Amino acid sequence: MRRSLAKSIGSLVGIGGVAFSITLLSQSMRAVEAVGGYCASGGPYQIRQSCPSGVAGAFPLAIIGGLVFLGLFVFCASDRGRSVAMLAWSALFLTLAWNFIDYGVKGGSGGGAGFLIPGVLFVLMGAAPLFYVVPNMWKSFLGQDPNQSAAPSPFLRYSGLPSTSAPAPAATPSWPSTSGWGMPSPAASTVTPAASTATVAGTSSSGSDDLASELERLASLHRRGELTDTEYEAAKQRALAHGGTT
Q1: What is the overall mean pLDDT for the chain?
Q2: Which of 18, 66, 166, 187 is most buried by its number of CB atoms within 10 A?
Q3: Number of folded domains in the chain?
């Protein structure tokens, strides 16, 4: 119970940390865009445009912190919850793509069409995983198994090819029997070994009038294991009822 509660808290902290890191990275990027789209800090040369206060440290903190919090979420989340981790990729690139496109459309010093190109590329990179993650999340929401394959197609049903959606039923063992033309007999295909043994035990001594010999024969078959207890008792009762003729 405590372990489950700790993992639940850890996964929530991981999600919150990833969201905070992406927000910090986005705001730092917009701060740089506000001063022209580029800046520099430190170094022996004269700097034309200094970076806003705190931006130089915010970028690495947001990137490293985001990876740490994402790892915490993956460690604490359940198997189904781990698939949501892919949304962090989409959230990061779509957020940065919005910053690029917004700054490229508004223009300004350093802005323009040059920012629209990376914005479009980041949209494609961020949207691609959604085609895989969102359908699986919807299946999990409906209580379905995301790894369950769809129903077999009509081509597989009528082509005779094996289908992976459901295992083939196990074949019931039967005694081989053929008809007069050498083909398997439909009526004999349903006879199981136990039933066939009982039939042999009940009919092999037809015409014998010696009850004692019949009972001895049945007892011998029972000792050798060719007759089960139930089959032996049934055959013995029939022999007694018919005076040795089964």
Answers
A1: 74
A2: 18
A3: 2
On whether both 133 and 12 belong to a single domain, the answer is: yes
Report whether 56 contacts 41 (CB < 8 A): yes
Degrees, nearest 5: CA angle 20-23-27? 140
Task: Give the Cα separation of 174 and 188 in Å (integer).
Answer: 8
Q: ∠133-134-140 over CA atoms, to 5°?
A: 90
Listed in sequence order, the residues at least 6 apart from 189 whose beta carbon sits closer than 8 Å to its beta carbon are 174, 177
- One-letter identity of residue 8: S
Within this chain, do residues 134 and 198 fall inside the same structural domain, yes or no? no
**Domain range for residue 210?**
190-241
Tokens of residue 95, six digits: 């957020």
Give residue 64's pLDDT band: very low, low, confident or very high (50, 70, 90).
Answer: very high
pLDDT, tens digit (0-9, with 9 covering 90-100), for 118-144 = 889 999 998 988 888 778 777 766 766
CA–CA gap between residue 22 and residue 63 (Å, rounded): 8
| SS3 at position 101 | helix
Residue range 16-40, pLDDT digits in tens:
999 999 999 999 988 888 887 778 8
Task: Give the predicted TM-score (pTM) of the model.
Answer: 0.52
- Among 89, 131, 110, smallest CA distance to 32 is for 110
